[in-house]
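Final report, closing paragraph on structural work. Over the funding period we assembled a curated collection of sequence-structure pairs, and we close with a single example.
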Amino acid sequence: MSIVKVLVIAKEHWISLDLKYRLQRLGYETIVAKENLSTVIEREQPDIVLLDQQVIEGKTVGTIEAAKLPLLCFNTENQPFDISVDFPCLMNPYQETVLDTAIRGILRQHQTQSKLAQQLNHNQKQIELLHTVDHELRTPLSTMLITLDWIELMEQEELSARSLQKLDHLSIARNSVRQMADFLDRTSLLCRCQSGNLAFRPTWINLSPFCKTIIFEVEQLLCNAQIQFTNLSGNTAIEFDEIILRQILINLLNNAVKYSKSGNPVYFSVACNSEQITFKIQDQGIGITERDRELIFKPLYRGSNVKAIPGTGMGLAIVQQLVSACGGNITVESTPNVGSTFTVMLPFSN
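Its predicted structure, as stored:
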């Protein structure tokens, strides 16, 4: 582990020397500022700065902040600070145990903040990349679909054996393009969630017809779907964003069907009280390992046991982001080779 370098800036030289010896006894490497501050920081690359209250002024603080260094102020008179500062402050720098504790605490806090800033920057770059991909691919995909439709119309006029064969290939191509377009739609939705640009437009929704329509869509898309629906709230209407709710339920139902064992039904129930609505989707499938349960809501992550089952790793990430954006909560209970149960609780206006 490298030795921590401390830069001391004090009004009096004897204060700097006193602190230097104390810090050396504590195991720190100490630099005393004797020249231009920017030059010292660039040459010595300190890990933290100790700044005397008596020399706090805008230029000095600005130089330290520009170098992104943690700062600890101190008062050599062992008195309360007589100026207002927004930095951590130490009234007695000569008490070595207190000095050591303060430095270590500031360094830990700075390290945590730096990691968070790096993660936020990384996430922002990912969002910008996804936006670029969405923008660059959406127009070519639309052009491809229009072209395939035009070719299909031309081939349908012939109705020869050769034309029928071409139509089969056109159908396969169209499905592939639509899958790519669907992936872009999911990517765009995830970007809007993460960037805080998701608009919430509530409308009145009759739960039973709404859920049954979604079940029909999933069963049309996945021929092996067997979804058993239970409405525990009777003929209930809620005020909620229909597009967001549709995305949440379709993604969860698609996953439940896709990862279920052949012939086993998926159980889908809904229940309301005066404050929230609860959706529960239970499958009898491959399940999720304990390690995977901590990661399944991350974009592009796929479980270790999915094997050859197709998927993008976007569905659950989108669900989690949408649920969170609505102020709701999602939980999962799962046992490998037995099945999984996802429970979504959403607040709503009634």
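The longest helix spans residues 96-158. The longest strand covers residues 339-347. We thank the funder for supporting this effort.
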